[in-house]
Amino acid sequence: MTHSREALTGWVDDLASTDPAVRDETALAGLTDAVLGDDPVDDDTARGLLDHALRHDGPLSGLGEPEGGHGIFGRSFTLELLAVLSSRENAAPFLDPGRKNRVRRAWLDVIEQERDFRARVEGHGWAHVVAHAADLADELACWPAVPGATDPTAEAVKGLARLVGRSPRVYDGDEEDRIANAFASAVRRRTGVLEDIVDVVGCEVHEPGHDVIRQNWKAIVRSLHFRLGVEYDRQGCLRDLEAELVRL
Questions:
Q1: Nearest-CA neighbor of 198 among 151, 163, 248, 153?
Q2: Do residues 22 and 13 make contact, with C-beta atoms less than 8 angstroms apart?
Q3: In angstroms, rounded to a whole number, what is the distance separating the alpha carbons of residues 217 and 200?
């Protein structure tokens, strides 16, 4: 089904709605189909959606707001739209370096500045910024490395670890599975990633007062171990992961 640009940008705006039927079932579902479906929009239209999502006065301009406001929906679901657009980029590149850097910067800003970690909001449905940040990280990690720049896979793993370390809440909306999925993809993509994760877990979770971080990492490590299992060809490192799980 073909939609006008006006209708599509309206859906981008609706990602900030507090009504889950509008936000999740109509706007996000419609945009996902428009970008990745059987009859997708052209590249210029897809670039326009990204530009509208990342406009200077858009939802991400509210980063840093304390937990409790409704701005979290626009910020979180903008990340999920960026994940959808980045998935298209990975399948058939259409973004210029400047736009790709804007996506990357938006993700890093959320990693460092987001303060609302609620999975669900009573009466308004999913907020899920951690899960959506993990979905975007999974796509960004697939981008080709640029000479002189940070390796995308390493940056994705480090950023997600930073997000876990900042969370004041024990995960209760399957966030650990979305993070573990991104980690598992990174492990399969590049050697040394699992060792990096084991090192982070070992440093993060045994500090005094890190009970929430410990519980979240335990859930992530358990989910990651399940996803890798016997298919992973470096069983020695997997045993190191198991050892950390036992210690948690």
A1: 248
A2: no
A3: 10
- Ranges 127-131, 191-195, 204-208: which has the least confidence: 204-208
Query: Distance (Å, rounded) from C-alpha 29 to C-alpha 24?
Result: 6
Residue burial 77-112, b: 16+ Cβ < 10 Å; e: rest: bbbbbbbbbbbbbeeeeebeeebbebbbebbeebbe
**241 burial type by CB count under 10 A (0-12 exposed, 13-18 middle, 19+ buried):** buried
pLDDT in tens, 101-112: 999 999 999 999
Q: Which two tokens stand for residue 22?
A: 């509008």
Number of Cβ atoms within 10 Å of the Cβ of 69: 12
Question: What's the CA angle centered on 173, arms 172 and 176, to 5 degrees?
Answer: 85
R_g of the chain, CA atoms, integer Å: 18
Share of the chain above pLDDT 70, in %: 90
Q: Which two tokens stand for residue 141?
A: 């990690």
Per CATH, the number for 1-140 is 1.25.40
**Are the C-beta atoms of 175 and 134 separated by less than 8 Å?**
yes
* Separation between Cα atoms, residue 191 and residue 124, nearest integer Å: 41
The DSSP result for 17-66, as a single string, is -S-HIIIIIIIIHHHHHHHHSSSPPPHHHHHHHHHHHT-TTSGGGGTTPP
Please tell me the pTM assigned to this model. Answer: 0.93
Long-range contacts of 107-112 (CB under 8 A, 24+ apart): 107/79, 107/82, 107/133, 107/136, 107/137, 107/140, 107/159, 108/155, 108/159, 109/60, 109/63, 110/60, 110/63, 110/75, 110/79, 111/159, 111/160, 111/162, 111/163, 111/166, 112/162
